[in-house]
Structures are given as structure tokens and as C-alpha cells.
Amino acid sequence: MRCPFCGHEDTQVKDSRPTEDNAAIRRRRYCAACGSRFTTFERIQLRELMVVKSNGEKVPFDRDKLLRSLTIALRKRPVEGERIERLVNSIQRRLETLGENEIPTKVVGEMVMDQLKELDPVAYVRFASVYRNFREAKDFEEFVGKLGDNR
Length: 151
Prior knowledge:
Blueprint lengths: L10 E8 L5 E8 L5 E7 L6 E3 L5 E3 L2 H11 L7 H16 L5 E3 H15 L1 H11 L5 H13 L2
Parallel strand pairs: 4-6
Antiparallel strand pairs: 1-2, 2-3, 4-5
Helix pairs in contact: 1-2, 1-4, 3-4
């Protein structure tokens, strides 16, 4: 694997261990050329997932983009990073087991919404505000009002 610091082609694995949820292998690596250390993660990929956007454009599923979105929604909330990681793994596994290579963004968004609704109501509203494209305060009021009606 190429060193992210100096670009040297040959790095050494110093330590490998499974992540807490056993969904990936965490590898500590060392670059002999520059002496840097870094971590990589190896994950199982059941199939190549393509996300179909609302305009019809197809893009590869980006796990890191999903992780960033959830991290933003959960910013300053009492949820540990490991729990967010497990949530992303869960959503990715569910998408892979749908049996489809092309998945509409609506399906991904609804899965995220379902998970966040259970995990943290504030993050759920934050994510919904972007996902459902809230334009003004009344959009929030209506959404939160419906949320209160469902309890």
C-alpha cells in the first residue's frame, strides 16, 4: 500500500486486528522510507453499489460520504464515534443485501432517517432538514409536529 505521506509504494503492516463489530480489519502500517505510521481498514464488499440520484445520475456508493453526513447530524450529540461507525456498517450491509446493484438515493435516505430516529431525535431532525430540503422555519415546525404525533 502506498504511504499517504511520502507516496512510497511499499509499507509494512505492524499490527492487524478486527474492529469491535468484526465488520473490518484495522491495520497499523509503517513506511520505512519516511518513518510515518498510519491506519487502514479492510472491509468486505459484497457487491459494487451504485446510487441513482434524483436526476438519474449514477454514482458509486460512498461509505465515507455517509459517515460524514451522519457525523455532521450527530455533531455535539452524546453518541460515540464507534456507534456511528456501527450505524454506517449496518446501513451498508442492509443496502448490499437488498440484492440490487443500483439503489435510489431515496432508499438510502430513508434507511438513514429510520436509524437516526431510533438513535437520536435531534440528529434525526438535523438530517431531515437537509434530506427533505427544509426552506423555512414552518418546515421544521411541521416536521417536528408530525414527530410528536408519532410518539
